[in-house]
Amino acid sequence: MTPEDQQTLLKVAQWIVTHRNTRRTIRQLAETEENYLLLIRELDRVERQCFRAHTLHAEATLTLVEWLEILNLFHWHCAYCHTGPFQVMSHRIPLLQAGTTAANCVPACYHCYRSHEKENKHADSY
Ligand SMILES: [Zn+2]
Prior knowledge:
- The chain is mainly α.
- The protein contains five helices and two strands.
- α1 runs antiparallel to α2 (about 35-55).
- Zinc ion (ZN) binds near residues 80, 81 and 111.
């Protein structure tokens, strides 16, 4: 194992410890199990999408607060059809171009998400 790998493992272990403590506090603050599970789900989503953007050297500034405000703005429904339930985070402009930011992320249903991704791929090929 290289010293870099050892450093990475330590970094990840530290992250896990911090994360576990964070989750314990969130559970207390959320008051209900439903709120807690919802917050954790969205926190994971934001972190995952920011990590993805960061890995691709795109902007990764979206915070959980911004994401919840965006969800409230769309009443937790799909931003494209306004009727489907929110199921995934969608990047309006492809992630590589505009990153995971408050201006670029909207909630989507699976159906619209797939159509939107297809459109983006189509647009990218020109
Ligand atoms: Zn939709």
